[in-house]
Amino acid sequence: MRIYTRTGDAGQTGVIGGRVDKDDNRVEAYGTVDELNSFVGQAMASLDPVKYEDMLQEMKVIQNELFDMGSDLALFKPGLRPYKATPEMTVKLEQLIDRYDGETPDITRFVLPGGSPASSLFHVCRTVCRRAERRVVTLARTEEINPPVLTYLNRLSDLFFTMARAANHREGVPDSEYERSGEVFRRKS
Q1: What band does 189 get if pLDDT is binned at 50, 70 and 90?
Q2: DSSP 3-state assignment of 15?
Q3: What architecture (CATH level 2) is domain 19-177?
Q4: pLDDT, tens digit (0-9, with 9 covering 90-100), for 158-174
Q5: How many Cβ atoms from other residues are within 10 Å of residue 118's Cβ?
Q6: Does residue 183 register a pLDDT over 80?
Q7: How far apart are CA 158 and CA 185, in angstroms?
Q8: Phi, then psi, of 141 in degrees rounded to 5
Q9: How far apart are CA 118 and CA 100, in angstroms?
């Protein structure tokens, strides 16, 4: 199989069931999900395999689910095939958020990205995930999408935030708090 096809040389690309311009909102949405998946891979390649064994296993699942999200976003028209993203995927993310949040101390102020190298990588994933979410919102204004994709991305960014804090905690590095912030979060009950 050849990698190059020359079919995109005029600025269009194939999606599932049709062709669109390469800067189409659909391509922007699934392309940003793909970019996020690359950053998840970079984070995985950088994490200590012993200290972060649990997170690495979860991130492998997330990478496959991000492919599912991209696949759903690449559908030219609904109904061409069944959607892959399901509400159950988001429920699993919520369980992970609760688990990793249980590892961390209470926060009361906004947290700045950074701390340990591992935490910094999770914050990059979080912010790229938020951008992907924004691109999907833009697409959903004009095209029908599979709603669980948007919910999943919203929750996934929360998971990356929680993983970033858990990584700092595991490394013995305190979160860096925004100094000008008042107390904006409630303590865990």
Answers
A1: low
A2: strand
A3: Up-down Bundle (1.20)
A4: 999 999 999 999 999 99
A5: 23
A6: no
A7: 14
A8: -70, -30
A9: 14
Cβ-contact 93, 156 below 8 angstroms = yes
Single-letter amino acid, residue 165: R
CA atoms within 13 A on the CB side of 166: 20
Distance of CA 100 to the CA centre of its chain: 16
Q: Do 182 and 109 form a contact (C-beta atoms < 8 A)?
A: yes
At position 137, the amino acid (one-letter code) is V
Q: From CA 184, how far away is CA 100, in angstroms rounded?
A: 20
Coil, helix or strand at residue 97:
helix
CA 119 to chain centre: 15
> What 3-state DSSP class applies to 16?
strand
pTM > 0.90? yes
Which helix (H) or strand (E) covers residue 131, if one does?
Answer: helix 117-142
Strands 12-15 and 18-21: antiparallel
* Spatial separation of the C-alpha atoms in residues 153 and 33, rounded to whole Å: 9
Q: What is the DSSP letter of 75?
A: B
